[in-house]
Amino acid sequence: xxxxxxxxxxxxxxxxxxxxxxxxxxxxxxxxxxxxxxxxxxxxxxxxxxxxxxxxxxxxxxxxxxxxxxxxxxxxxxxxxxxxxxxxxxxxxxxxxxxxxxxxxxxxxxxxxxxxxxxxxxxxxxxxxxxxxxxxxxxxxxxxxxxxxxxxxxxxxxxxxxxxxxxxxxxxxxxxxxxxxxxxxxxxxxxxxxxxxxxxxxxxxxxxxxxxxxxxxxxxxxxxxxxxxxxxxxxxxxxxxxxxxxxxxxxxxxxxxxxxxxxxxxxxxxxxxxxxxxxxxxxxxxxxxxxxxxxxxxx
Length: 299
What we know:
The protein is an alpha/beta fold.
Protein backbone atom coordinates (compact mmCIF):
# COMPACT_ATOMS: atom_id res chain seq x y z
CA UNK A 1 0.00 0.00 0.00
CA UNK A 2 1.17 3.54 -0.75
CA UNK A 3 -1.18 5.10 1.79
CA UNK A 4 0.00 6.92 4.95
CA UNK A 5 -2.21 4.76 7.15
CA UNK A 6 0.02 1.80 6.22
CA UNK A 7 3.04 3.65 7.64
CA UNK A 8 1.01 4.62 10.73
CA UNK A 9 0.06 0.96 11.12
CA UNK A 10 3.76 -0.01 11.15
CA UNK A 11 4.42 2.46 13.96
CA UNK A 12 1.39 1.30 15.95
CA UNK A 13 2.05 -2.42 15.46
CA UNK A 14 5.64 -2.04 16.57
CA UNK A 15 4.59 0.02 19.57
CA UNK A 16 2.13 -2.73 20.54
CA UNK A 17 4.85 -5.36 20.18
CA UNK A 18 7.22 -3.44 22.45
CA UNK A 19 4.45 -3.02 25.04
CA UNK A 20 3.50 -6.69 24.88
CA UNK A 21 7.18 -7.58 25.30
CA UNK A 22 7.09 -5.59 28.53
CA UNK A 23 9.74 -3.08 27.52
CA UNK A 24 9.91 0.37 29.11
CA UNK A 25 11.38 3.71 28.01
CA UNK A 26 11.77 2.76 24.36
CA UNK A 27 11.68 5.53 21.76
CA UNK A 28 10.90 5.69 18.07
CA UNK A 29 13.27 7.76 15.95
CA UNK A 30 11.43 8.79 12.79
CA UNK A 31 12.43 10.65 9.65
CA UNK A 32 11.58 10.75 5.96
CA UNK A 33 14.23 10.02 3.36
CA UNK A 34 12.12 11.81 0.75
CA UNK A 35 12.90 15.14 2.41
CA UNK A 36 16.66 14.83 1.90
CA UNK A 37 16.40 13.13 -1.48
CA UNK A 38 13.87 15.71 -2.64
CA UNK A 39 16.34 18.52 -1.98
CA UNK A 40 19.29 16.72 -3.56
CA UNK A 41 17.26 15.66 -6.61
CA UNK A 42 16.11 19.21 -7.29
CA UNK A 43 19.76 20.26 -7.03
CA UNK A 44 20.48 17.71 -9.83
CA UNK A 45 22.72 15.43 -7.78
CA UNK A 46 23.08 11.94 -9.25
CA UNK A 47 21.99 8.86 -7.29
CA UNK A 48 25.55 7.79 -6.51
CA UNK A 49 26.34 11.11 -4.83
CA UNK A 50 23.00 11.14 -3.02
CA UNK A 51 23.59 7.65 -1.67
CA UNK A 52 27.08 8.54 -0.50
CA UNK A 53 25.80 11.65 1.28
CA UNK A 54 22.98 9.75 2.99
CA UNK A 55 25.37 7.03 4.14
CA UNK A 56 27.51 9.70 5.80
CA UNK A 57 24.41 11.17 7.45
CA UNK A 58 23.47 7.71 8.68
CA UNK A 59 26.80 7.69 10.53
CA UNK A 60 26.05 11.22 11.85
CA UNK A 61 28.96 12.59 9.81
CA UNK A 62 26.87 15.59 8.82
CA UNK A 63 29.69 17.99 7.95
CA UNK A 64 31.34 15.40 5.74
CA UNK A 65 28.02 14.82 4.00
CA UNK A 66 27.47 18.53 3.45
CA UNK A 67 31.04 18.94 2.17
CA UNK A 68 30.45 16.14 -0.34
CA UNK A 69 27.28 17.84 -1.52
CA UNK A 70 29.05 21.20 -1.70
CA UNK A 71 31.81 19.72 -3.87
CA UNK A 72 29.08 18.58 -6.28
CA UNK A 73 28.20 22.18 -7.06
CA UNK A 74 24.88 22.68 -5.28
CA UNK A 75 23.47 26.12 -4.47
CA UNK A 76 24.26 28.04 -1.29
CA UNK A 77 20.57 27.82 -0.43
CA UNK A 78 20.81 24.02 -0.49
CA UNK A 79 23.76 24.01 1.90
CA UNK A 80 21.96 26.35 4.26
CA UNK A 81 18.81 24.22 4.21
CA UNK A 82 20.78 21.02 4.88
CA UNK A 83 22.60 22.62 7.81
CA UNK A 84 19.29 23.74 9.27
CA UNK A 85 17.64 20.35 8.73
CA UNK A 86 20.27 18.33 10.60
CA UNK A 87 19.61 20.52 13.64
CA UNK A 88 15.86 19.85 13.59
CA UNK A 89 15.15 17.00 15.99
CA UNK A 90 13.12 16.48 19.13
CA UNK A 91 10.22 14.82 20.89
CA UNK A 92 7.61 17.44 19.99
CA UNK A 93 7.03 15.54 16.77
CA UNK A 94 4.41 17.68 15.05
CA UNK A 95 6.20 20.91 15.97
CA UNK A 96 9.46 19.59 14.51
CA UNK A 97 7.67 18.57 11.30
CA UNK A 98 6.15 22.05 11.12
CA UNK A 99 9.65 23.52 11.30
CA UNK A 100 10.84 21.07 8.64
CA UNK A 101 8.04 22.14 6.29
CA UNK A 102 9.03 25.77 6.73
CA UNK A 103 12.70 24.95 6.16
CA UNK A 104 12.12 23.11 2.85
CA UNK A 105 9.27 25.28 1.52
CA UNK A 106 11.25 26.16 -1.64
CA UNK A 107 11.74 22.50 -2.59
CA UNK A 108 8.58 20.90 -3.99
CA UNK A 109 9.50 17.22 -3.58
CA UNK A 110 10.87 17.74 -0.08
CA UNK A 111 7.75 19.69 0.91
CA UNK A 112 5.52 16.84 -0.29
CA UNK A 113 7.60 14.38 1.75
CA UNK A 114 7.29 16.55 4.86
CA UNK A 115 3.51 16.71 4.37
CA UNK A 116 3.44 12.91 4.08
CA UNK A 117 5.35 12.55 7.34
CA UNK A 118 2.98 15.00 9.01
CA UNK A 119 -0.05 12.94 7.92
CA UNK A 120 1.51 9.68 9.12
CA UNK A 121 2.25 11.12 12.56
CA UNK A 122 -1.19 12.72 12.88
CA UNK A 123 -2.92 9.44 12.01
CA UNK A 124 -0.79 7.66 14.61
CA UNK A 125 -1.45 10.18 17.36
CA UNK A 126 -5.15 10.63 16.59
CA UNK A 127 -5.60 6.87 17.02
CA UNK A 128 -5.00 7.34 20.75
CA UNK A 129 -1.78 5.35 20.59
CA UNK A 130 0.60 6.44 23.36
CA UNK A 131 3.93 6.37 21.59
CA UNK A 132 7.23 8.15 22.23
CA UNK A 133 8.44 9.59 18.92
CA UNK A 134 11.49 11.70 18.23
CA UNK A 135 11.54 13.26 14.78
CA UNK A 136 15.03 13.69 13.32
CA UNK A 137 15.11 15.57 10.02
CA UNK A 138 18.72 14.53 9.40
CA UNK A 139 18.03 10.84 10.03
CA UNK A 140 19.04 8.66 7.06
CA UNK A 141 19.18 4.88 7.25
CA UNK A 142 22.12 3.39 5.38
CA UNK A 143 20.17 1.23 2.93
CA UNK A 144 19.59 2.83 -0.47
CA UNK A 145 16.15 1.39 -1.22
CA UNK A 146 14.16 3.50 1.26
CA UNK A 147 11.81 6.01 -0.37
CA UNK A 148 9.64 7.45 2.42
CA UNK A 149 9.26 7.34 6.18
CA UNK A 150 12.12 5.64 8.02
CA UNK A 151 12.24 4.60 11.66
CA UNK A 152 14.24 2.91 14.38
CA UNK A 153 13.34 1.82 17.90
CA UNK A 154 15.88 2.36 20.67
CA UNK A 155 16.06 1.57 24.38
CA UNK A 156 18.34 3.22 26.93
CA UNK A 157 19.88 -0.15 27.77
CA UNK A 158 21.38 -0.86 24.33
CA UNK A 159 23.48 1.26 21.98
CA UNK A 160 21.94 -0.34 18.87
CA UNK A 161 18.40 -0.20 17.48
CA UNK A 162 16.11 -3.09 18.40
CA UNK A 163 13.96 -2.54 15.30
CA UNK A 164 14.24 -0.59 12.07
CA UNK A 165 12.52 -0.10 8.76
CA UNK A 166 10.51 2.24 6.61
CA UNK A 167 8.94 2.63 3.18
CA UNK A 168 10.52 1.01 0.12
CA UNK A 169 8.17 1.60 -2.81
CA UNK A 170 10.60 0.48 -5.52
CA UNK A 171 12.28 -2.50 -3.83
CA UNK A 172 10.15 -5.18 -5.51
CA UNK A 173 10.92 -3.67 -8.93
CA UNK A 174 14.66 -3.88 -8.20
CA UNK A 175 14.21 -7.66 -8.05
CA UNK A 176 12.27 -7.77 -11.31
CA UNK A 177 8.75 -7.64 -9.87
CA UNK A 178 5.76 -5.46 -10.60
CA UNK A 179 5.55 -1.95 -9.07
CA UNK A 180 4.52 -2.66 -5.47
CA UNK A 181 4.43 0.20 -2.95
CA UNK A 182 5.34 -1.25 0.44
CA UNK A 183 6.35 -0.40 3.98
CA UNK A 184 7.68 -2.59 6.73
CA UNK A 185 9.98 -3.08 9.67
CA UNK A 186 12.45 -5.69 10.90
CA UNK A 187 12.22 -6.52 14.60
CA UNK A 188 15.58 -7.73 15.91
CA UNK A 189 14.37 -10.53 18.16
CA UNK A 190 17.86 -11.10 19.56
CA UNK A 191 18.20 -7.44 20.55
CA UNK A 192 14.65 -7.30 21.91
CA UNK A 193 15.49 -10.29 24.10
CA UNK A 194 18.64 -8.54 25.31
CA UNK A 195 16.60 -5.44 26.12
CA UNK A 196 14.06 -7.57 28.00
CA UNK A 197 16.84 -9.24 29.96
CA UNK A 198 18.41 -5.89 30.87
CA UNK A 199 15.02 -4.68 32.13
CA UNK A 200 14.26 -7.96 33.94
CA UNK A 201 11.09 -8.56 31.92
CA UNK A 202 9.35 -11.90 32.48
CA UNK A 203 8.29 -13.75 29.30
CA UNK A 204 4.55 -14.38 28.94
CA UNK A 205 2.88 -16.82 26.57
CA UNK A 206 -0.70 -17.27 25.42
CA UNK A 207 -3.11 -17.42 22.49
CA UNK A 208 -5.57 -14.86 21.15
CA UNK A 209 -8.17 -14.43 18.46
CA UNK A 210 -7.14 -12.62 15.28
CA UNK A 211 -9.02 -9.63 13.90
CA UNK A 212 -8.99 -7.59 10.69
CA UNK A 213 -10.44 -4.08 10.79
CA UNK A 214 -11.96 -2.88 7.51
CA UNK A 215 -13.10 0.73 6.97
CA UNK A 216 -15.81 0.93 4.32
CA UNK A 217 -14.32 4.17 2.91
CA UNK A 218 -10.99 5.97 3.16
CA UNK A 219 -12.46 8.78 5.26
CA UNK A 220 -12.91 6.27 8.09
CA UNK A 221 -9.28 5.13 8.22
CA UNK A 222 -8.67 7.21 11.35
CA UNK A 223 -11.55 5.52 13.16
CA UNK A 224 -10.24 2.12 12.06
CA UNK A 225 -6.83 2.90 13.55
CA UNK A 226 -8.42 4.05 16.82
CA UNK A 227 -10.31 0.76 17.13
CA UNK A 228 -7.15 -1.19 16.29
CA UNK A 229 -5.30 0.63 19.06
CA UNK A 230 -8.09 -0.09 21.54
CA UNK A 231 -8.04 -3.81 20.73
CA UNK A 232 -4.25 -4.04 20.90
CA UNK A 233 -4.33 -2.39 24.32
CA UNK A 234 -6.44 -5.40 25.33
CA UNK A 235 -3.86 -7.80 23.80
CA UNK A 236 -6.01 -8.71 20.81
CA UNK A 237 -4.06 -9.52 17.63
CA UNK A 238 -5.21 -6.98 15.02
CA UNK A 239 -4.40 -5.79 11.53
CA UNK A 240 -5.98 -2.93 9.60
CA UNK A 241 -6.96 -3.07 5.94
CA UNK A 242 -4.61 -0.48 4.40
CA UNK A 243 -4.71 -1.55 0.74
CA UNK A 244 -7.80 0.49 -0.08
CA UNK A 245 -9.68 -2.64 -1.17
CA UNK A 246 -13.45 -3.03 -1.26
CA UNK A 247 -14.99 -4.66 1.81
CA UNK A 248 -15.79 -7.85 -0.12
CA UNK A 249 -12.19 -8.29 -1.30
CA UNK A 250 -10.81 -7.59 2.17
CA UNK A 251 -13.18 -10.15 3.70
CA UNK A 252 -12.14 -12.74 1.13
CA UNK A 253 -8.49 -12.16 2.03
CA UNK A 254 -9.19 -12.38 5.77
CA UNK A 255 -11.16 -15.60 5.29
CA UNK A 256 -8.40 -17.13 3.14
CA UNK A 257 -5.85 -16.41 5.87
CA UNK A 258 -8.07 -17.93 8.57
CA UNK A 259 -8.52 -14.69 10.50
CA UNK A 260 -11.21 -15.20 13.14
CA UNK A 261 -13.10 -11.91 13.02
CA UNK A 262 -13.59 -8.87 10.79
CA UNK A 263 -14.61 -5.52 12.24
CA UNK A 264 -16.33 -3.48 9.53
CA UNK A 265 -16.26 0.26 10.25
CA UNK A 266 -19.17 2.06 8.59
CA UNK A 267 -20.62 5.56 8.91
CA UNK A 268 -24.13 4.48 9.92
CA UNK A 269 -22.92 2.24 12.74
CA UNK A 270 -20.34 4.77 13.96
CA UNK A 271 -23.12 7.33 14.55
CA UNK A 272 -24.40 4.90 17.18
CA UNK A 273 -20.94 4.11 18.59
CA UNK A 274 -20.98 0.69 16.95
CA UNK A 275 -19.39 -1.46 14.23
CA UNK A 276 -20.30 -4.63 12.37
CA UNK A 277 -18.51 -7.68 13.83
CA UNK A 278 -18.30 -10.66 11.46
CA UNK A 279 -17.36 -14.12 12.71
CA UNK A 280 -15.55 -15.46 9.65
CA UNK A 281 -15.60 -19.05 10.83
CA UNK A 282 -19.34 -19.18 11.51
CA UNK A 283 -20.27 -16.80 8.65
CA UNK A 284 -22.31 -14.72 11.09
CA UNK A 285 -22.29 -11.01 11.73
CA UNK A 286 -23.90 -8.62 14.19
CA UNK A 287 -23.75 -4.96 15.14
CA UNK A 288 -21.73 -4.44 18.31
CA UNK A 289 -21.00 -1.37 20.41
CA UNK A 290 -17.34 -0.39 20.08
CA UNK A 291 -16.85 -0.54 23.85
CA UNK A 292 -18.05 -4.17 23.81
CA UNK A 293 -15.92 -5.52 20.95
CA UNK A 294 -13.25 -7.14 23.14
CA UNK A 295 -15.79 -8.83 25.37
CA UNK A 296 -17.75 -10.11 22.37
CA UNK A 297 -14.66 -11.48 20.59
CA UNK A 298 -13.44 -13.31 23.67
CA UNK A 299 -16.91 -14.64 24.42
